[in-house]
Amino acid sequence: MQTDQARPDSDPLKTAELWTRDGRTVAIATVIETWGSAPRPVGSHLVIDQDGNFEGSVSGGCVEGAVVSEAIDVIETQTPTTLEFGVADETAWRVGLSCGGKIRVYVEPVSNGR
Question: Domain of life here (predicted)?
Answer without folding.
Answer: Bacteria
